[in-house]
Amino acid sequence: MFEVIKTEGRARRGVFTCAHGTVQTPVFMNVGTQGAIKGAVSAHDLAEIGCQIELSNTYHLHLRPGDEVVRDLGGLHRFMDWKGPILTDSGGFQVFSLSGLRKITEEGVTFASHIDGRRIFMGPEESMRIQSHLGSDVAMAFDECVANPATYEYVKPSCERTYRWLVRCKEEHERLNAQPGAVNPHQMLFGINQGGTYPDLRVWHMDEIAKLDCDGYAIGGLAVGEETQVMYDIIDAVEPHMPADKPRYLMGVGTPSNIIEGVARGVDFFDCVMPARNARHAKLFTWEGAMNIKNEKYKLDERPIDPNCGCPACRSFSRAYLRHLFVAGEMLAMRLAVLHNLWFYNELTARIRQALDQGCFQAFRHMYSQKLDGRI
């Protein structure tokens, strides 16, 4: 299922195998929230730009078109025509983002739909059933993502409850996989570490969930308000307590530098809406730093976005053309920009893997960690 084939310091080069294929790690998961990448990018496009594993959202697909609809149409792979691995998040982060419209109890969370306001209940069992209907390769456990900063008095009972929810998730997940007609009877379950910005709670929680022998483990509840160095400090505290033979996933992170620094701290999986979201607002990533393609200086620039990029936009179009598309409000601008940024993130993790294979990751980190978060 997961094999670490090489290390450099705490950085790991691995191979993850699941029902729909093999993933080379470290890896960036391309975020297709509702079964599609925002910016008019399809599953077929993902294959062209080097995506290994796609991530979709339990909460959103539960609302539209409905997880039972997806199940009846053969599961999410068939529905969106994606042949590779899929990870589905549990809905916990969306519940976090609806903080003004929710009520949390031991049973689960009652909240209002952001679409029509109807009341919805989701607990560990409901999250597992939705993800089972979707048929993803990896289901994430239902958890509470706590905003940072939060008081110790709030975070402690919250992460204790998240532990109890994981126990329930695991039991329901195993039951669902054993059901006749399960969309993906080989679906895996990843547990999620919580504990806010308190190292002692993070370590306690990681030690406890590690005993449950999940298929992988994520660090959640970071990049939600804390300073970047605090995030790195929490990873440093948790990583020694994460099972070495299981994949490690840093949820919702982040910038190119965050990914490089996360790899240096032993993380294998990453996801973030940032590359696609920034692209839709004309912020593009290159190997020389980020650029705003709407700037006047690109009006007559005939060069590609990045001369070192092989994405569909850079192969065929100039900076001047892409700038024109954004200024004119053409939808093609967003599509080409999203394809470019996702290509860049997929290429970034490919180059990280190459550096680990060659034993020169630290040199790669030294060269690019700060540079890639700068601006041209």
UniProtKB/TrEMBL annotation:
The active site is at 89 (proton acceptor), 271 (nucleophile). Zn(2+) binds at residues 309, 311, 314, 340. Keywords: Glycosyltransferase, Metal-binding, Queuosine biosynthesis, Transferase, tRNA processing, Zinc. It holds the Pfam family TGT. Pathway: tRNA modification; tRNA-queuosine biosynthesis. Residues 10-370 form the tRNA-guanine(15) transglycosylase-like domain. Binds 1 zinc ion per subunit. Substrate binds at residues 89-93, 143, 194, 221. It is an enzyme of class 2 (transferase). It catalyses: 7-aminomethyl-7-carbaguanine + guanosine(34) in tRNA = 7-aminomethyl-7-carbaguanosine(34) in tRNA + guanine. Its cofactor is Zn(2+). It comes from the Bacteria. Coiled coil: none annotated. Its EC number is 2.4.2.29. GO terms for molecular function: glycosyltransferase activity. Residues 252-258, 276-280 are annotated as: RNA binding. Catalyzes the base-exchange of a guanine (G) residue with the queuine precursor 7-aminomethyl-7-deazaguanine (PreQ1) at position 34 (anticodon wobble position) in tRNAs with GU(N) anticodons (tRNA-Asp, -Asn, -His and -Tyr). Catalysis occurs through a double-displacement mechanism. The nucleophile active site attacks the C1' of nucleotide 34 to detach the guanine base from the RNA, forming a covalent enzyme-RNA intermediate. The proton acceptor active site deprotonates the incoming PreQ1, allowing a nucleophilic attack on the C1' of the ribose to form the product. Homodimer. Within each dimer, one monomer is responsible for RNA recognition and catalysis, while the other monomer binds to the replacement base PreQ1. Belongs to the queuine tRNA-ribosyltransferase family. This is Queuine tRNA-ribosyltransferase. The gene is tgt.
